[in-house]
Design a protein that fits this description.
By secondary structure, this protein is an alpha/beta fold. The chain has helices at about 10-25, 35-40, 60-65, 85-90, 110-125, 150-155, 180-195, 210-220, 235-245, 255-260, 270-275, 285-295, and strands spanning about 5, 25-30, 45-50, 75, 95-100, 130-135, 140, 165-170, 175, 180, 200-205, 210, 225-230. The chain is elongated and about 60 Å long.
């Protein structure tokens, strides 16, 4: 049994990580910004309302107010921009760190989030602490995941009497490598339980990349529909999406997501499988599980 603090415990991934760690017998303390959301977590976990974004909030709690015994591992499912705040708050005693990042750190397009994640990674490994940063690809599977669930919602609202025709950059030929949220949570827990996994950052992704067009087609098929993809220049699509957002119209993809959809995302997951022992399921299998958990559309 390890003594574990989970930062960002009330998020989509965090709440699953808390439940898995508790189920495996660990002593878990969950940190989140709001007491109401903490109250919905696994009851076996202790909890503390604490916002890591508030300067100076984490250090005194870690040192004395929060725990009666030293922490073995700190897990952060919060944005990697908070890496510096976490490091600055750590006591002098040894503590392992398992932090979440994102593969946006590797994308070639200018991206504020990607830059913040890269800086968080740099600070983490410069600290000399035993650690690993897990960079997840597109995470899907939660009812509110903001990726696949939003696409499914948009397709479900599409009028039944109209064919589904979605414009995509390059006709949706670019690659994406989504990972099911349960595999992400299992990877975080594996990193906690396998100190040997400490080392260079690990990418968490599905078993193989698929074309964005195929992802859309899978989503439509899961709803009993057929979707066709229309090739449209990225600049035009991004302008239309931005205009729709200003008008309060929800589209399957926003302007930023369209720009990312024009970039290939293809990653080697063998290090994830080897170091963590987690073999991710494919997109179609994850989508079927997601639809099954949510019930009929």
């Amino acid at each position: 049994m390890a003594r574990i603090v989970v930062i960002g415990a009330t998020g989509r991934t965090g709440r699953r990580v808390v439940a898995l760690l508790c189920a495996r017998g660990h002593a878990v303390t969950a940190l989140g910004r709001t007491a109401a959301k903490l109250g919905a977590l696994d009851r076996r976990a202790a909890s503390q309302a604490l916002d890591v974004a508030v300067p100076g909030a984490l250090a005194p709690w870690l040192e004395s107010a929060g725990l009666d015994v030293p922490v073995d591992v700190i897990v952060s499912c919060a944005h990697a921009r908070f890496t510096g705040a976490i490091l600055d708050a750590l006591p002098d005693r040894p503590v392992r760190l398992v932090l979440m990042g994102s593969v946006r750190r590797y994308l070639p397009i200018p991206d504020r989030d990607g830059s913040e994640i890269a800086e968080g990674e740099r600070r983490l490994y410069a600290s000399g602490r035993p650690c690993v940063m897990l960079h997840a690809s597109m995470i899907f599977g939660a009812p509110d995941d903001g990726n696949v669930s939003r696409i499914l919602g948009s397709l479900a609202r599409w009028p039944k009497f109209l064919p589904i025709i979605l414009p995509l950059p390059d006709g949706g030929r670019r690659l994406v490598q989504p990972i099911f949220i349960d595999d992400v949570a299992a990877s975080v827990v594996a990193a906690v339980e396998r100190p040997a996994s400490d080392g260079p950052p690990l990418v968490l992704a599905g078993p193989a990349p698929i074309a964005y067009r195929r992802m859309i087609e899978h989503c439509a098929a899961a709803l009993g529909r057929h979707a066709a993809v229309l090739p449209v220049p990225l600049g035009l699509l991004a302008a239309v999406a931005a205009t729709a957002a200003r008008a309060g119209i929800a589209l399957p993809l926003n302007a930023a997501e369209l720009r990312r959809a024009a970039q290939d995302k293809s990653f080697d997951v063998e290090p994830m499988i080897t170091r963590l022992g987690v073999a991710p399921i494919g997109f179609a299998a994850g989508l079927a599980r997601m639809i099954g958990q949510a019930g009929p559309p």
